[in-house]
């Protein structure tokens, strides 16, 4: 099922290949200077590729619909289709394939750059989320790209997360595939990743143990709470990293203590009513422990924005631009095919099958004609050669 066209965030000018900064978000201009709003609560859905983020987002929307009327955002520029109706869809703003083509990038570079470009529209994005809150959307659910590191370790992921957290209550849901975590070492690496995201985002964190229709998640919860049980599981595995895993599990003890986990099946919808309760706990946690920190951050930003230095004043300190190894050009300003703002109706359509066939036929005809004239020329040349030979023989 494909989503209905979302709202396009692009409207402003193109900024090179995207050079966003959190300071670009002018809080005063966004009518967000009064303080962190109560709603919508932003729920950022993260997880390893294939863990079930998109399916989870769809289920969460369904379960939260009546109570929280979620506003939905898709930030994965590379997905072909999403199984829910997104209010904002990055694919309506940035043409990921065109980004790859124009900047000569591979798939991951394309996603990062597309996200960077989207982030240059962060003020507009924040404004849309604010207005959604005023229209009665109590939650804003944000689905992120398949490649988790693209979001968690990129400047733009950081700007989006931090930007939202300084304007709205924000929490992170980490979707974990329980089926893939049955091996203690894989479980441990997944947990280390979750832990690193927690430290990086500094936001309330909920682990959704997904796919419990395929595998019960009690073993994961047991490994988190009972060190001996995890050691026993580890003993059964012959791996050279066992010692490291053992040490890590001890280190993560404190992390587990404060972690909220919930078993769900994004496919069947099992566990979602409990998950909603946990999400509300996370919101309370944000209000209690995190809001003061982010409130302080926003005050600092407001103060910084009030005293914006004149860039011209520091012109002498500016360095000299060094050309990059790659030929990174600004996107061609071409109305036919720009990387920015490709609302579905504006995207140059692929030729349909009939048109392609006609084009192929026309090409075929031309090739035929060329070939015929080549043969004709060849034969004429041969004939004139033979005539010349005959003339010479007659003269002799
Ligand atoms: N059995 C079962 N399958 C699931 C569940 N959740 C997701 N899946 C399947 O897992 C696969 C990946 O799901 P997606 O929702 O696309 O996962 P994703 O994390 O968004 O994937 P990427 O964005 O491509 O990384 C799909 O085949 C889903 O049908 C679940 O709860 N149970």
TrEMBL record:
CC per GO annotation: cytoplasm; nucleus
Its EC number(s): 3.6.5.-
Keyword flag Disulfide bond: no
Keyword Cell inner membrane recorded: no
Protein localization: Cytoplasm; Nucleus
Alphabetically ordered keywords of this record: Coiled coil, Cytoplasm, GTP-binding, Hydrolase, Nucleotide-binding, Nucleus
Family: Belongs to the GPN-loop GTPase family.
Subunit structure: Binds to RNA polymerase II.
Protein name: GPN-loop GTPase
Organism: Drosophila albomicans (Fruit fly)
């Amino acid at each position: 099922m494909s989503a209905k066209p979302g709202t396009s965030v692009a409207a402003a000018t193109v900024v090179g290949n995207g050079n966003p900064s959190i300071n670009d978000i002018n809080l005063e201009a966004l009518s967000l200077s009064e303080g962190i709003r109560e709603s919508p609560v932003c729920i950022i859905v993260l997880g390893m590729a294939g863990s079930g983020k998109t399916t989870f987002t769809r289920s969460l929307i369904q379960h939260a619909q009546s109570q929280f009327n979620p506003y939905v955002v898709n930030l994965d520029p590379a997905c072909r289709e999403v199984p829910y109706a997104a209010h904002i869809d990055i694919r309506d703003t940035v043409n990921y394939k065109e980004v790859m083509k124009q900047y000569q990038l591979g798939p991951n570079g394309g996603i990062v750059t597309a996200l960077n470009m989207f982030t240059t529209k962060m003020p507009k994005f924040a404004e849309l989320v604010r207005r959604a809150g005023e229209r009665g959307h109590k939650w804003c659910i944000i689905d992120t790209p398949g490649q988790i590191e693209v979001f968690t370790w990129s400047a733009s992921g950081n700007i989006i997360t931090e930007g939202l957290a300084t304007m709205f209550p924000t929490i992170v849901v980490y979707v974990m595939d329980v089926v893939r975590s049955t091996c203690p070492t894989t479980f441990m690496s997944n947990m280390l990743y979750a832990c690193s995201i927690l430290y990086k985002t500094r936001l309330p964190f909920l682990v959704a143990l997904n796919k419990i229709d395929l595998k019960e998640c009690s073993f994961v919860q047991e490994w988190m709470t009972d060190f001996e049980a995890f050691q026993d599981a580890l003993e059964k595995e012959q791996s050279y990293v066992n010692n490291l895993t053992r040490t890590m599990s001890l280190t993560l003890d404190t992390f587990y203590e404060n972690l909220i986990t919930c078993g769900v099946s994004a496919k069947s919808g099992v566990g979602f009513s409990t998950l909603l309760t946990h999400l509300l706990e996370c919101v309370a946690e944000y209000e209690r422990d995190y809001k003061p920190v982010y409130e302080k951050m926003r005050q600092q930003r407001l103060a910084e924005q009030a005293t914006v230095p004149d860039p011209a004043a520091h012109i002498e300190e500016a360095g000299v631009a060094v050309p990059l190894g790659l030929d990174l050009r600004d996107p061609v300003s071409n109305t036919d095919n720009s990387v920015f703002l490709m609302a579905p109706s504006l995207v140059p359509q692929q030729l349909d099958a009939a048109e392609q066939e006609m084009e192929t036929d026309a090409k075929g005809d031309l090739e035929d004609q060329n070939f015929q004239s080549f043969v004709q020329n060849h034969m004429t040349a041969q004939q004139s050669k033979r005539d010349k030979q005959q003339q010479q023989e007659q003269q002799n």
